[in-house]
């Protein structure tokens, strides 16, 4: 068996791994490279393999940095099958369509050819099959099973068995504080493992309940008479916020103020969550069986249309606006940040990972002035951060997941992290678990 790394090495994005055995070739993930600009030059470069030779793609989850080049793969000749959980397929359809719109606009601005078109997206969706957790799929000599990664709805750890060996692809692993999804599943054994390292050198702040901190931030902003802006990824982070805001509203822990979900994509994905509630953890399912509508509560407004979004400006503070994108590198949140960042009564609450050089990272790092839509914007609003809302496991959680595998693992490949984070996790794996591990290079091939 040969394993080649075509993305997701020394970077968080672009996840793309090729496995070959007995003439069969499968991919795990086919993600978009994302950076300061959504439209990164790497996305236009040729694949390091012939797309027509790929028999199947197994997708860990719907996020664009894992799925975003699937239509390009189809455009260039892939006609195999894409396998994922059913909610991953449903969410990917919306996320890829949204990505198509953004990429087309930026390609036009930069005078580049399009990466793919709508027909390519529809083509790859027609070759896509949803499979449940724990039901193996055979592709040539490969037997592949999906396990709950606990990262986003339907996210998977992918386990491949071939030639008497077992290799695990962690995908993105979930933060155990997630209130909606079940815990990340523990594997009994594996010979090889690819493990993500987005937070490979960090520990989430668990000293306080994140919902209590959210309550405090809301109350402080209401007292000041300001606007609370929350840049949130459309998938998982927005739904988790709704789940916890519902609890705060229902138990009268926060004042009754307007709460806006100002993201058409997040609204569509919330409908996917409603459709696949059986993938929620037992406590969330119990609430639903008891009649709780966790994504619908007094004061909540879903502003899908542009006119509805613009009307938010006419509503006097205090109010809460949740909008994409999560790193403030696009989307409707930019309009609200331009309007309210200069207001010292308002608050920007950052609840997720902020990529290097993103606007969100600069705001988190304390920038006093930022540029939005070509305008210089003063940052007088308070900027707060709740690390516990990350959808990624931190170093301690990653090590705890690896620990039961330490006696069977021959090698661990540390992937999907900025280089400093990958190096920190690599050192921790070697020092604390005494497992051989390494950080692969782009296009490195290993014979396993």
Task: Describe the protein.
The chain is α/β, with parallel strands linked by helices. The chain has two domains: 2-202 and 391-447, Metallo-beta-lactamase, Chain A (4-Layer Sandwich), CATH 3.60.15.10; 210-389, 3-Layer(aba) Sandwich (Rossmann fold). Helix content is 30%, strand content 21%. The chain contains 13 helices and 22 strands. It has helices at 64-67, 70-75, 86-109, 118-126, 210-224, 237-250, 264-275, 282-289, 306-311, 333-340, 359-364, 395-402, 419-433; strands spanning 2-5, 17-21, 24-28, 56-58, 81-84, 128-130, 137-139, 142-148, 156-162, 165-169, 192-196, 227-231, 259-261, 300-302, 319-323, 347-350, 369-372, 375-378, 382-385, 411-415, 437-438, 445-447. The strands form four sheets. The protein has a seven-stranded mixed β-sheet with strand order 6-5-4-3-2-1-22. Strand 7 and strand 8 form a beta hairpin. The model has no long low-confidence stretch (mean pLDDT 92).
- Binned, the helix content reads 25-40%
The CATH homologous superfamily of the largest domain is called: Ribonuclease Z/Hydroxyacylglutathione hydrolase-like
Number of domains: 2
Mean pLDDT: 92
For the CA atoms, what is the radius of gyration? 21 Å
Number of helices: 13
Largest sheet: 7 strands, mixed
Query: Which CATH first-tier class of the largest domain would you pick?
Result: Alpha Beta
Poorly predicted runs: none
CATH-level-2 architecture of the largest domain = 4-Layer Sandwich
Which structural class is indicated by helix and strand composition?
alpha/beta
Dominant shape:
globular
Q: Kindly, what is the distance between the CA atoms of the first and last residues, rounded to a whole number of angstroms?
A: 5 Å
Count of DSSP E strands?
A: 22
Residue share in β-strands: 15-25%
Protein name: MBL fold hydrolase
Domain Beta-Casp: 238-363
InterPro entries: Beta_Casp (IPR022712), MBL (IPR050698), Metallo-B-lactamas (IPR001279), RibonucZ/Hydroxyglut_hydro (IPR036866), RMMBL (IPR011108)
Keywords: Hydrolase
